[in-house]
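Provenance and format

Records in this collection were gathered into a single text stream. Each protein contributes a sequence line and a token line. The two records reproduced below are adjacent in the stream.
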Amino acid sequence: MKFSIKYEAVNVENLILKLFYLNVLKCFNTFAFCFMKIKSLLAKPFAGYIHRQIKKGMHTALQDQQLIFKNLIKAAVNTEFGANHHFSQINNHEDFIKNVPIRDYEAFKEYIEKIKAGRHNILWKGQPIYFAKTSGTTSGVKYIPITKESIPNHINTARNALLCYMAESGNTNFADGKLIFLSGTPELERVGGIPTGRLSGIVNHHIPKYLRSNQLPSFETNCIEDWENKLEKIVEETIHENMTLISGIPPWMQMYFDRLIEKSGKKIGELFPNFSVMVQGGVNYEPYKAKLNESIGRPIDTIELFPASEGFFAFQDTMTEPGMLLNTNSGIFFEFIPVEEYGQPNPTRLTLNDVQMGVNYALIISSNAGLWAYSIGDTVKFVSLNPYRIIVSGRIKHFISAFGEHVISEEVESSILKVASEMNIHLTEFTVAPFVSSSDGKSYHEWFIEFEQEPDDLNEFSLRLDNQMRIKNVYYDDLIKGNILNPLKITIVRKNGFIDYMKSIGKLGGQNKVPRLSNDRKIADQLMSYVNIS
């Protein structure tokens, strides 16, 4: 038997990448475990490679979006949704606008119900491989399809965020420690024969067995439904471990830190000396930043993510620039509607090519999960167009316009943060609602605030906060000037009042968060049971 050997020039970068893919890439199946037990020698070149690829993608974002749009339409042309909306006749974005109206989950339910009944080729070819189960404010439980084509978006984006951080910071040491990632229960039910559960619980099933020793909390603890029991077990499992990366939504992490400090008598940075990276998303980090930093007791790097059951939309790719990089090449086609036009019969629907900085847009997606012109309910604002970086500015339904002022989350958050910083005051949680007077007295905005320590001069705090809101929102300023509204009123929520409130409505822990704004008194009236009586 004869053997022939063919010699070729070796590209070192490609060789490293291929070796890495063969031996390690399966380790990167999800954010919860993607770097455990990976040696720095392997992590660094791979991080560098991915970082370079992402930088290249910044320059092709518009072309990538056009290609994704064409491929999505082509892939779904023979689905029921595609037939109903004449996908065979769609050649460009203008055709898409004419044939596919904006929808929220309620308008999609008829198609979802058909999938749940076992039908194929409804929103996407075949059937979803999962339903991500999530709660909605008006729709009750929502079932968001995840397909074999869309699941890499959820898995790879968090990986890319950590790889970019590695490449930029040079910090790879956290890869060998323990990572905590709180997920929903990994126990899945079947709906219409399709495995169904929380997205984080679904992702948990993709963790290789040989990596589970690095993931915390344990599978069994993640299956605990009661949040307080779950938190106790998480503390028990992690308090003596070498925690190097902790992730979650900020209010959950603060509860976890508070319990660790209570148990150990140490700040988090002392308790976990190798803790170096905190990954957060789900809500604006800034209102929680001061208290979290105080709990840690030393500087720490943070990475911000913008995930949802409908897709992983953006991630922080750099430590030196504001905003998160829009995920322009991951199976999602983005549209943007100016917030003031949202809900109108024919709103302006912009592609990435036409967006402007500093404008609030409702985020609309079409994806390889079978979501079409789908309104996810979030609003975003571009802070850079080269590359395309965004911040999450609020929720479509979270606003106050009881008197025509249309106050949004970004305005209340930036106002209270500025005043709290000026007066050196730390906040725990807050929400705002209108108070509409039914008597001769004027109406006002009522702020429910839980302070870590109450201001020495609450009147001064209120005055400054009201003035800042008037600067932020000209309509609010006009209402105050015109004596239509009284200045805002602050109602102090007792310590742990928001936690007790969330517990009372069955939404304590996990990915649940308190809405910043409501246009009615539903939350405000319930919170009256948790205010300070003085």
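Adjacent record:
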Amino acid sequence: MQENTARADLTTAAPAWAASYPPGLDWRFEVANEPLFALLDRTAAVYGDKPALVFAGVEYTYADLHGLVQKAAAGLQARGVTKGVKVGLFMPNSGYGVVMYYAILRAGGTVVNYNPVYTEADLVKQVEDSETDMLITLDAAPLLEKAAALLLKSRIKQIVVCAARDNMLAPQRNDELVKGVAYCWFADIMAGDATPAPVTIDPANDIAVLQYTGGTTGVPKGAALTHRNLVANATQMDTWFHNAVPGEDSMVAVLPFFHVFAMTVVMNMPIAKGLKIYILPQFNLGELLDLIATQKPSYLAAVPTMYTAMVNADKTSNIDFSSLKFCISGGAPLPAEVKNAFEQKTKAKLVAEGYGLTESSPVVTINPISDKARAGSIGLPLPGTTVEILSLEDGATLMPVGEKGEVCVRGPQVMPGYYKRSEETALILKDGRLHTGDVGYMDAEGFVYLVDRVKDLILVGGYNVYPRNIEEAIYTHPAVAECIVAGVPDRMRGEAVWAWVKLKDGQNLTDSDLRSYLQGRLSPIEMPKKVIVRDEPLPKTAVGKLSKRDLLLQEGIKK
């Protein structure tokens, strides 16, 4: 792996965009040389009696969480988890996920996050590629069936089962649930010593998490995120959330922890800050709205499709959102129409649109938590982070203010490389820069704007067409709930613009209606040649992002 040496410390001159930071924030940033679990140690020492997690009707304090992590780490060590052993987390959101994540790291192991909806074949590939030897899951039949198959078909040697509805402080076994399979229960892990053996961690080089991604080149790869990478990004976000009140404020965890956005923004950062985390197993609109109404959380992090769902739900109008200091959007571009509609309906502030990649732990930029936030922008580079716009022609020339190019990143949160994939690493890490594959520009005050993915550019008769521009225009139509725009092979033009839309309930819209509406809003080369109005929702990833890849597969379109 290639070590990313980019570093911005207290002796580095601040860039021009630092002047756009809210008062009291400094771009100059030094990363603590400590393992990731030190964040929990420090918070538990100061806020031990404050609530850390609320899961399945039980509230756990930071002292509880720290004690559970210590004991679980000792139990994992007793079962062979030592320095560098890969342990998979295979579950939807739960308190166990938080406990075992930190316990694996405390034991010296490396966390490998697994998406619970992956097929058996995909899971086997990831197990073998990552060299995962132990899997931790919940006592749900679909998960246990896949886990049992992995014992037979992969290198997995041990399965740890957690009883989802148990109080984690008094865990139970249920051997009848796993007949014929030699599983280990969370209760077994917690039956031994309460203190793990100390492990020496090299934060800059030891891998804390293998986070799998299609990355910028499409093939699933493990982004090797070091302890230093993740400490840096959690601390950068902690700094950005300077108005959050430790020991008092709270975060809603509706995004899945196995996704890198939630891992940092919804788990690691709140733990570093000492916030209470309300854990929802998955996105259920009714449950989320009920939680906001009854528990009065301080912060909500979600993806644009979740905000769209709230906008379109009648129930939202009856919910008091006033406890939310602000909401965060990430994972995908936030259409201005969705932001405006959400703020108008809920009176909550959706001010913190950000941007990141798995390869950068993930957050790179975020809008300031102030009146300086700009709709349509992905915000300012985080402290210690440098964003550069490089020429699409040669990949090296710095573009002037306002000119489009590839967004490239330097910073302590950037991974050293993909696990066991030096060639793929060399394609995106060049001269200390992470080449994101995204097209964007930076304005005179340092705010970054995304135009599109390099690979998503549509070439219409030799002209570059950016799908995001077209999607933004389509979202302004009041009947549209969801939209995806993509290029489709075309004999005459090379590619043609097609749009797929899902309408709001009770709305009607035809191809010709929408194209007439877009006249004057789009140039002739941007105008969709075809509009497909679908009755069913557009396909989404596990984290809830609209999936262009899956849509094209459904339509049988090859690019």
